[in-house]
Design a protein that fits this description.
Elements (H helix, E strand, L loop, with lengths): L8 H12 L13 H4 L9 H16 L33 E5 L2 E4 H12 L11 H23 L7 H15 L2 H10 L4 H24 L4 H13 L4 E2 L2 E10 L6 H19 L4 H8 L3 H4 L4 E6 L5 H9 L9 E2 L3 E11 L2 E2 L2 H28 L5 E3 L6 H35 L24
Antiparallel strand pairs: 1-2, 1-9, 3-8, 4-5, 4-7, 6-7
Length: about 450
């Protein structure tokens, strides 16, 4: 019925974590590629404030959904519709859509999930496209509630010390008690509220970890899975270069004076390198790409076609171990250090064994959780209160069905009445003499004398 989770079970697990924490709006869980994840970004107007705010937000958001819950972003099979500027407004009054063991799921619950999943406000979706999208999101939310209830009723427990340790980890990651409290206050939360959320999140993680510990993965399974991926052509790696860089940012609307100042800054950095200073030291002191600067300028691997053409050209034209002269890209001025290069090749199992095995195990964990959910769902009472996702359509359908039933009943009554009338107007057949009997003879008239 509702267990169509084979294609999006990882999302169901993510939603379940938010159901456990009492939140119906999951955060984004997309993972950036190695290239984009380490790509340089423009510096914030106030780096210290921006960095503090970003760190605080990430830590508090992480309390609601552990990063390890899903392997990759999966969707509800929802495709953003083609929007029209004159799309009619959608009524905001919530209405009940389903009931799971007596707990009502409203349209506002579903809309919160749907809006986050397709990346647009509900009011932007044309009214005729909203109901089917709502029903897909409702299915996922129902399944998530089943998983959440299953976990709550399991033998897994969370102690206060578990929560204490997690709270302390968050405070340490954010840089102390003051930053932690500011981040909570900015979201209208306090530590007690966060602790409740954390307790449920830890419960989910423990349940998944216990399931993971019970799953076995043989070397034969690993080899078979690798062979399948190789045969499918999914293990072909392009030419790559591993680089570090020093960047001086130049906005698109920079004045000539600002551009010249940036050029002077990168030239000075290049002179320091030529004088013998290490690339790491100069990058930390000069580079305006804060993320890579903190790591001595290390950017990571780039593949052809995946980054700025100017950066790509200099990276692949420079020998390993060499640095480039200063050059300008669409982001600003750069100096690159080429640390390594790899030719196009088929990725071996040894290159990816750890992450490949983890991915396979995650698949088996999801399959096991899916199996447990299917068994548990037989104990759950689910009622769909709005079958089409639109109360107006449901009401019209019910009214039409009632009218059809009335017309059918009237038709049957008319047919029955006609049959009775037909029987009443037919003359009865004269009795027939039975076989072997002679008809009574009419006496002859007396003969005349």
């Amino acid at each position: 019925m509702f267990l169509r989770f084979a294609g999006h079970f990882a999302l169901i697990l993510l939603l379940a974590a938010f159901v456990l924490t009492g939140c119906s709006r999951p955060g984004d869980n997309s993972e950036a590629s190695p290239v984009s994840d380490s790509a340089p970004t423009a510096p914030a107007d106030t780096p210290e404030v921006a960095a503090t705010a970003a760190e605080g937000g990430e830590a508090v958001e992480a309390a609601g959904a552990p990063e390890s819950m899903v392997d990759e972003e999966e969707d509800l099979a929802i495709t953003p519709p083609d929007l029209e500027e004159d799309a009619p407004p959608v009524p905001e009054a919530p209405f009940p859509m389903a009931r799971v063991n007596g707990e009502v799921i409203t349209s506002s619950d579903v809309d919160a999930i749907l809006s986050r999943q397709i990346g647009m406000p509900i009011s932007a979706i044309p009214a005729d496209q909203l109901p089917p999208l709502r029903m897909q999101a409702l299915d996922a939310l129902i399944e998530a509630k089943i998983v959440a209830e299953m976990i709550r009723n399991s033998d897994v427990t969370v102690t206060d010390s578990d929560v204490d340790a997690e709270v302390q980890n968050i405070k340490d990651d954010m840089g102390g008690e003051d930053v932690f409290n500011e981040a909570l206050a900015s979201r209208g939360l306090d530590e007690d509220t966060l602790r409740v959320s954390l307790k449920e999140t830890i419960l989910f993680e423990k349940y998944r970890d216990e399931t993971r510990d019970s799953v076995e993965l043989s070397e034969e399974e690993v080899q078979e899975a690798y062979a399948m991926q190789k045969e499918a052509g999914n293990l072909e790696a392009p030419e790559t270069a591993e680089i570090s860089h020093i960047m001086v940012y130049v906005p698109e609307d920079a004045s000539e004076e600002d551009a010249q100042a940036a050029k002077a800054k990168i030239d000075a950095a290049y002179e320091r390198l030529q004088a013998g200073e290490s690339f790491e030291e100069v990058a930390k002191a000069v580079s305006e790409d804060e993320k890579s600067a903190a790591e001595g300028g290390h950017w990571g691997m780039i593949a052809k076609g995946d980054t700025d053409p100017d950066i790509e050209y200099h990276a692949f034209a420079t020998e390993v171990g060499e640095i480039t002269e200063p050059f300008r890209s669409g982001m600003g001025y750069h100096i690159l250090l080429v640390e390594d290069k790899k030719e196009p090749h088929t990725i071996t199992l040894d290159e990816i064994r750890d992450e490949f095995v983890e991915s396979l195990k995650d698949q088996k964990v999801n399959a096991e959780l899916q199996k447990q959910m299917a068994a548990y769902s037989t104990q759950v009472n689910v009622e769909i209160l709005t079958p089409t996702g639109s109360p107006e359509v449901d009401a019209a359908s019910a009214e039409e069905a009632t009218a059809d039933d009335g017309a059918a009943a009237a038709s049957e009554e008319d047919a029955s009445g006609a049959a009775v009338m037909d029987g009443a107007t037919e003359a009865p057949d004269a009795p027939q003499a039975e076989e072997g009997e002679s008809a009574e003879e009419t006496p002859d008239a007396p003969a005349a004398e």
